[in-house]
């Protein structure tokens, strides 16, 4: 992030140098159409608000890319409107130090026993990619004829295209038979084993359409005729719960040695946000 910011600053200083040397620009247009694009380097976070059985979850933001191909109209030197097609990714690392759960069930011989699950060092990576269709309002404040400030805000209509999770942890499975007052450990019977490394890669259930608030602000400048560059900070946030899992009252993270569920499946609410740096260009038509 620091290297990227340094590069952006160098680009800005280059633009200033060109302007100060008297480059011959076209007169500024107050109304124009344009095409453009941007690249975003951001930290993203998917917040899994857990149920009582998987609390507390540690959530660590991760770097992920994003971008947009944009077309729009600037109605005056102050106001404009744009849309386009974009791509973004939500990438988050989650961890849970310990997990304990027990429930009554039947074994293969139809006898009732209490199955006890203990887990530790449980980690999960959630990766969700979106195709975005934005509707953006643009506000510009010219400071000089070729330099100014901008604010862009609006909504993304985000469609998930990839939604995976990768989980792993160490689990122990034991069984207690109250009828015999016996605790069974470390035998192949009923998949009762200790200190087993369990991992799973699976698909997340995400709503088919997720509205997202998008906003960015920064500086813009012209480096050549009809070519604008801008540098700013951006913040995005999903406006609704993005999970498509049904509500679960008694969530079991893992019941056997060959399977582990996603934290998202047992969470009450899933929200997501991102914060990053955006570099953009516009070519005036």
Features:
285 residues, mainly beta, eight-stranded antiparallel β-barrel, 10 strands, 65% strand
How is the quaternary structure best described?
A: single chain
Alpha-carbon Rg, integer: 26 Å
List unreliable stretches of 5+ residues.
2-27
DSSP E strands, number? 10
* CA-CA gap between termini: 33 Å
Helix content: under 10%
**CA-based shape:** rod-shaped
H and E string: HEEEEEEEEEE
Side by side, the strands of the main sheet go: 1-2-3-4-5-8-9-10
Name the beta content range: over 45%
Instruction: Kindly name the structural category.
Output: mainly beta
Main β-sheet, in a few words? 8 strands, antiparallel, barrel
Number of helices, counting only DSSP H or I runs of 4 residues or more: 1
Average pLDDT, rounded to a whole number, is 87
Question: What does the model show?
Answer:
Helix content is 7%, strand content 65%. The protein has 285 residues and is mainly beta. It starts with a helix and ends with a strand. Mean pLDDT is 87; it is low at 2-27.
């Amino acid at each position: 992030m620091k290297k990227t910011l340094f590069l952006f600053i160098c680009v800005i200083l280059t633009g200033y140098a060109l302007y100060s040397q008297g480059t011959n620009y076209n007169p500024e247009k107050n109304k124009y159409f344009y095409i453009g694009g941007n690249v975003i380097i951001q930290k993203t976070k998917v917040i899994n608000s857990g149920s009582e059985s998987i609390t507390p979850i540690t959530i660590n933001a991760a770097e992920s890319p994003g971008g947009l191909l944009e077309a729009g109209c600037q109605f005056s030197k102050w106001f404009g409107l744009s849309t386009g097609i974009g791509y973004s990714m939500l990438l988050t690392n989650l961890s849970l130090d310990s997990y304990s759960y027990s429930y009554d069930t039947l074994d293969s011989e139809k006898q009732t026993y209490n199955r006890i699950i203990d887990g530790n060092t449980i980690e999960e990576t959630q990766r969700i990619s979106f195709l975005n269709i934005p509707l953006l309002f643009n506000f510009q404040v010219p400071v000089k004829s070729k330099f100014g400030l901008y604010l862009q805000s609006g909504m993304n209509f985000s469609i998930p295209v990839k939604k995976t999770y990768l989980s792993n942890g160490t689990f122990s499975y034991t069984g207690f038979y109250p009828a015999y007052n016996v605790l069974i450990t470390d035998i192949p019977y009923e998949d009762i084993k200790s200190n087993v490394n369990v991992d799973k890669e699976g698909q997340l259930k995400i709503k088919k359409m997720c509205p997202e608030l998008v906003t960015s602000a920064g500086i813009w400048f012209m480096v050549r005729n009809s070519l604008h560059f801008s540098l700013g900070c951006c913040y995005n946030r999903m406006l609704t719960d993005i999970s498509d899992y049904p509500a679960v009252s008694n969530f079991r993270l893992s019941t056997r040695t060959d399977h582990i569920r996603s934290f998202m499946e047992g969470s009450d609410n899933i929200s997501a946000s991102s914060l990053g740096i955006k570099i953009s260009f516009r070519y005036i038509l």
